[in-house]
Amino acid sequence: MKRFRFSILIMLLLGAAACKKSVNTMSNPTVNGNVTTDDAADMVAGSLSMNSNGIANVASDVTLNATVMFGDRDHLKCGTTRSDTISRQSSPGAPWTYSYKLTYNFMVDCNSSSVPDSLSSNLTYSGSFSGPNMSSTNSGSSIFGVGGLLPTDTAFVINGEYKRAGSFSSKIDTAHNGSSNIDIVVSGLLVKKHTHMIEGGTATFTITGTGRKGSFSFTGTIVFNNDGTATLTVNGTVYTINLETGDRHRR
User: Fold this and answer.
1) More exposed terminus of the chain, fewer Cβ within 10 Å: N or C?
2) How far is CA 191 from CA 86, 143, 155, 188, in A?
3) What residue numbers bound the domain in which 77 lies?
4) Which of helix, strand or coil describes residue 111?
5) Which residues pair with 130 in a beta bridge?
């Protein structure tokens, strides 16, 4: 009888260990307040991609305005301002849809010699998107500084902060929904001058919010690659993000 009970105890312990191991494997992402690392990756992807009015859009907008404003450097004055309002929608029949209204304010900044050398960008926006794995209605802001404006520079350099807040709903598991706040701090984002496409840079981010089972919090890093993707690390789990579509793949 003692041997039988001992055998049952061993089986129970092995079963508990197996369950714990399966929760921590890469095939089962970490859950935080009923929100997984996959969900967090989708939130960040939505804050990055062209199909959801992400940082890729904003980087293109601000560098295009920098090109226009610094096109006639001989007559450019310190403190020159420019405003721009954009309504941006997806094409009819597109697999992923979005609709946003953006309001930009730009100002020319000068160095200590009173020579124009950078552009300040202040953005507010609101809208919604339906991406590969998640839909969201949100609003936010960004403050970006654009450098690399000398004629000899081959790329613009962007530093600043991008924020987004609103509701989200997973398409993979409809039980995963709620509200979120996303804060992305960009450092040395490189944008090619002839294509206005991202070719390098890094960022850090924090996500906080509330899901069906309580609050959640995630942190991580972003590395922008020179192939239209970004490498995203969320609480130690690594993803590849398509900067055009917002699609993400866990490595």
Assistant:
1) N
2) 21, 16, 5, 9
3) 31-90+98-250
4) coil
5) 97, 135
Phi, psi of 244 (to 5 degrees): -95, -50
pLDDT at residue 48 greater than cutoff 70: yes
3-state secondary structure of 45: helix
The C-alpha atoms of residue 130 and residue 102 are separated, in whole angstroms, by 18
Residue 190, sorted as left (phi over 0), alpha (psi -120 to 50) or beta, turns out to be beta
Domain presence at residue 158: yes
Residue 8 lies in a domain: no
CA separation (Å) from 75 to 9, 108, 203?
83, 12, 35
For the stretch 69-128, pLDDT in tens is 998 877 889 999 999 999 999 999 999 999 999 999 999 999 898 889 999 999 999 999
Q: How far is CA 101 from CA 21, 40, 139, 161, 181, in A?
A: 46, 24, 9, 19, 19
C-alpha 241/C-alpha 237 separation (Å) is: 13
Tell me whether residue 13 is in a domain: no
Pick from 29, 180, 163, 58: which is nearest to 119 by CA?
58
State the residue for tokens 């802001």.
141
Q: Which residues of 215-234 are buried (b: 16+ CB within 10 A; e: fewer)?
A: ebebebebebeeebbbebbb
Q: Is residue 25 part of a domain?
A: no
Question: Which structure tokens are listed for 130?
Answer: 């339906």
Q: What's the sign of the alpha-carbon dihedral 130, 134, 139, 145? A: negative
Number of domains making up the chain: 1
Please state the length of the chain: 251
